[in-house]
Write a structure and sequence with these properties.
Elements (H helix, E strand, L loop, with lengths): L1 E3 H4 L11 H9 L4 E6 L9 E13 L5 E8 L19 E6 L9 E5 L4 E2 L3 E2 L3 E3 L2 E3 L2 E2 L2 H4 L24 H4 L6 E5 L10 H12 L22 E4 L10 E10 L9 H10 L6 H13 L4 E4 L7 E5 L5 E3 L5 E3 L5 E5 L2 E5 L3 E2 L12 E8 L1 H10 L5 H6 L8 H16 L2 E2 L4 E4 L7 E4 L2 H6 L5 H10 L3 E5 L2 E5 L10 H12 L19 H15 L3 E2 L5 E2 L1 H7 L23 E2 L4 H13 L5 E8 L22 H9 L6 E8 L16 H15 L4 E4 L5 E10 L5 E8 L1 H6 L7 E6 H7 L15 E10 L4 H12 L3 E10 L8 E10 L8 H19 L2 E2 L1
Parallel strand pairs: 13-16, 28-31
Antiparallel strand pairs: 1-12, 2-12, 3-4, 3-6, 4-5, 6-11, 7-8, 9-10, 14-22, 14-23, 14-24, 15-22, 16-19, 17-18, 19-20, 20-21, 25-27, 26-27, 29-30, 31-32, 32-36, 33-34, 34-35, 35-36, 37-39, 37-40, 38-39
Helix pairs in contact: 2-5, 6-7, 7-10, 14-18, 21-22
């Protein structure tokens, strides 16, 4: 909301020298957030005055253009010229070259003299052009920054002005005024008006406030006006879409009358351009009182007005000349010809006021905020009217606003108002709130006396009565946000002053620290970050195809998923059953922005229904805590939501640099990252050749617990999948069921003491079947070597010369150590032999 200071001064005691910054500093005290300052004089300054054209001699030029060599008077004839500056004639008559032709001798214009600055940092100086020294410029509205018209010079008589020659043009055009812009939160709709801001300024400063609504002499009752019928047969949530409609008639106006410059200037500072007198008046009253107004060309209406819901498929051409298909929920203003406006949003083109309008029907109505908000969003049609209606407008101000428009149309447009009028609707039931005497003090944390509470709520506009141990408060009609005793307490604190509330630090309750699951999750995500991966948070939505591909290992196997009732997009209309689609989508988005070397991971929930019906038959009502039985039924209707951990690697493992030859990520990196998760949790992962439709058939590992339960997969993603997704070839990934791993992890991980005795190392190479997983052989060696074995690892796989077809050689390094003595070579050899023997027994392994 932009607040022109000159407008605000009419209803408050804002000091004459106060700036927009001063105003915002005061409004901050009552909770209004400052946004910006709009000050035209920041971009336009210098000697800019009203001049009168004495002569305009047309001079054709060799380039085909004709210019006017003008003599322009800057001071009234007979008066002394007081303007000074290089290029300004002391005689008071200035010679100026002008290329426009829409003016004539005798016209009064705006003259920008040498030393002036115009918007766009355009500096005016005397210069020689077309054979003359032109000392100044006769300005257009675009050059002055007050409009878009650049067809010619601003002739003041054409906008209803006849000022004295030499008058300060900046003052005349309202360019020395300024506006403060504030942010209005949705619960304070009354601040979308000068009326509301003036009241808030009086609260902030303790100064007097004049309610502009009280200055309008509106009749208490209206009869005999234009016919209006409220016929809302399909109200939203049982609330009528329109509960008040005021209509007044003004006849015989001259719609071509220029809008007064003071009104144009204020509207411009408020952020609205001048259109025509009837439209400008309606906008002016809306900004002043907060009540949106719509003016109809009375002669273009057909029969009485009916406020009703739209028929499905009904159409209307709105004021922006667009044909819009209406929804059955849209509230319409109609006559016998059909829709003539979307209520509270935008009027129709068929009945708009134009230059030929003579008779005007003024509408000031009150609409349901929900209905207006839905129509505005449905048609993507924001407007100043809908901004106010969807937040709530004062029901009682409609007739006052209509009368204000009528008065201005009569005064400025030369019209005559009909004596009668229309005012139909049902007034809302006033809200009464019981405020216990000590409630506000307990709520805010400071003592409020009864007298202070009564005075403060009274200043707010409320009616306050004492009812036993309570205050009975009736909020004012413009405060539809006040509904509870908590709302009143907050208002008392706001108006008394937030800065007066004492600061008291709450005592933190004793905590038990993180739960076991929280500790486990934090250890895992921190370990992956420490390993160089980047954590992301992807949307939990997926396509049906993504769930079928990533959510189940075997192609074609059933994978129940949850379909969203109101998805952000129809394509991503399912809750995810795997983290990999979101990780891949994030990687693709980064690739498109030039980042191709990525290691991304996410720890997030997946949604795994068991195939049974989910949800509940009824939703508990608001305002009361559901019983334990109801909560249990709600939880029973939710799907299983285990925590998964996944990662995707693309590109190279490090940036290229002198001395560093980076390598491409491969399946080993994905497997190592998955093993890192197991190591951090103290869970041993068993690695075996895996098969998953989303992974490469020969480069995928199945990861299981020692119990045999599969907890995930790691490896290279399927080449066809990568090609279809436009991902780099050889991209790798892993995904683990962290929830299952958390449960399998030991409650306490006990570190083994470090032995101070020397280590004994021995190597062994075994020939086994080519298809036998190395991890199985490694497990047999570990088991067979006994307690002296400290570590065993695979360091070589060989096939080729000297190895039979269908066989492979696996080379392992074994490290032995005792806790209480130095091992002999014989003891280490004996343990190695036992390990080889068990591998031979289980797999037919032969030592090379």
């Amino acid at each position: 909301m932009r607040i022109p200071l000159s407008w605000l001064r009419e209803y408050t005691q804002l000091p004459a020298d106060a700036t927009a910054e001063d105003l915002m500093a005061d409004l901050v005290k009552v909770g209004l957030e400052e946004e910006a300052v709009h000050r035209p004089s920041d971009s336009i300054s210098g000697p800019i005055v009203v001049g009168q054209v004495l002569s305009a001699i047309k001079e054709p030029q060799s380039n085909g253009k004709t210019i006017n060599w003008c003599q322009v008077r800057l001071v009234p004839e007979g008066q002394e010229q007081t303007l000074t500056g290089k290029g300004i004639e002391p005689s008071g008559v200035q010679g100026i070259v002008c290329g426009a032709h829409n003016f004539a001798p005798g016209d009064k214009v705006v003259v920008t003299l040498p030393g002036a600055t115009l918007p766009g940092d355009f500096h005016i100086a005397a210069r020689k052009t077309y054979g003359h020294v032109s000392a100044g410029m006769i300005a257009s509205v675009r050059e002055l920054g007050i409009g878009d018209d650049h067809d010619g010079i601003l002739v003041l008589s054409r906008i209803g002005l006849d000022p004295e020659v030499g008058t300060d043009a900046l003052e005349l055009l309202g360019l020395k005024d300024e506006a403060a812009e504030i942010n209005v939160t949705p619960d304070r709709a009354y601040c979308f008006s000068i009326r509301g801001i003036a009241r808030e300024y009086s609260h902030a400063t303790g100064t007097e406030f004049t309610d502009p609504a009280t200055l309008v002499k509106a009749p208490q009752a209206l009869e005999g006006g234009y016919g209006v019928v409220l016929d809302d047969r399909a109200p939203i949530y049982g609330v009528p879409g329109c509960d008040r409609f005021v209509a007044r008639t003004v006849r015989g106006i001259d719609a071509t009358t220029p809008t007064p410059q003071w009104m144009v200037a204020r509207l411009r500072l408020a952020g609205v351009r001048s259109i025509s007198l009837p439209v400008d008046i309606s906008n002016y009253v809306m900004f002043e009182l907060g009540q949106p107004i719509h003016n109809y060309d009375l002669d273009r209406l057909t029969g009485p007005i009916t406020v009703r819901r739209a028929a499905a498929g009904e159409k209307i051409t709105t004021l922006d000349d667009k044909v819009r298909t209406l929804d059955a929920e849209d509230l319409l203003i109609t006559d016998e010809s059909g829709p003539i406006g979307i209520a509270g949003v935008m009027g129709g083109a068929s009945t708009e006021c134009s230059e030929t309008t003579v008779n005007v029907l003024v509408e000031a109505a009150h609409f349901d905020p929900v209905s207006i908000a839905r129509s505005r969003r449905r048609h993507r049609l924001p407007s100043e009217a809908s901004k106010r209606f969807e937040r709530g407008v004062d029901w009682n101000v409609a007739n006052v606003a209509a009368q204000r428009v009528v008065d201005l149309l009569v005064e400025l447009g030369g019209g005559v108002a009909d004596e009668g009028g229309t005012d139909v609707g049902t007034p809302p039931t006033p809200v009464q709130i019981d405020l216990p005497v000590g409630f506000a003090s307990e709520r805010i944390g400071m003592e409020f006396s009864d007298e202070l509470i009564t005075r403060t709520l009274g200043d707010l506009g409320s009616q306050v009565e004492r009812a036993g141990a309570d205050f009975r408060v009736t909020p004012p009609s413009w405060r539809n946000d006040l509904e509870t005793k908590e709302d009143l307490s907050e208002e008392i604190a706001r108006l008394v002053g937030y800065e007066k509330i004492p600061s008291t630090l709450p005592v933190a309750p004793p905590g038990r620290g993180f739960t076991r699951r929280q500790q486990q999750r934090r250890r895992v995500v921190q370990a992956l970050a420490d390993a160089g991966l980047t954590e992301i948070l992807a949307y939990p939505f997926a396509t049906e195809a993504e769930n079928e591909t990533f959510g189940v290992a075997e192609e074609g196997a059933p994978r129940p998923a949850i379909r969203l009732a109101n998805p952000l997009s129809e394509e991503h209309g399912w809750l995810r059953t795997s983290l990999l689609p979101g990780l891949i989508e994030t990687a693709k988005r980064n690739h498109g922005r030039g980042f191709r070397d990525l290691a991304l991971y996410e720890a997030g929930l997946v949604f795994l229904p068991d195939g049974e019906a989910l949800g509940t038959a009824t939703i508990p009502p608001l305002g009361a805590r559901p019983s334990d039985e109801v909560l249990d039924s709600l939880y029973d209707g939710l799907p299983d939501q285990p925590l998964h951990i996944g990662a995707v690697f693309t590109g190279k493992d490090s940036p290229e640099s002198p001395g560093n030859d980076p390598r491409l990520w491969d399946w080993v990196d994905a497997l190592d990252a998955a093993r890192l998760v197991g190591d951090v949790l103290g869970v041993e992962l068993v690695v075996a050749q895996g098969s998953h439709q989303a992974f490469h058939p020969g480069r995928a590992a199945q990861l299981s617990l020692r119990s045999g339960e599969v907890v995930g997969y790691a490896g290279e993603l399927h080449p066809k999948l990568l090609a279809r997704l436009d991902m780099p070839a050889r991209s790798v990934a892993f995904e683990l069921d962290a929830e299952t791993m958390f449960e399998a992890a030991a409650d306490v991980v006990v570190a083994k003491p470090l032995s101070t005795f020397p280590v004994a190392t021995q190597d062994v190479a075994l020939i086994v079947d080519a298809k036998l997983p190395a991890d199985a052989v490694l497990g047999a060696l570990r088991e067979g070597a006994g307690e002296l074995l400290e570590e065993v690892h695979l360091f070589d796989v060989y096939t080729g010369k000297g190895i039979d077809e269908g066989k492979k050689s696996l080379a392992f390094g074994l490290r032995f150590r005792a806790d209480d003595r130095t091992l002999t070579a014989d003891e280490a050899s004996e343990a190695r032999a036992a390990a080889v023997a068990l591998a031979a027994e289980r797999f037919g392994a032969v030592q090379r």
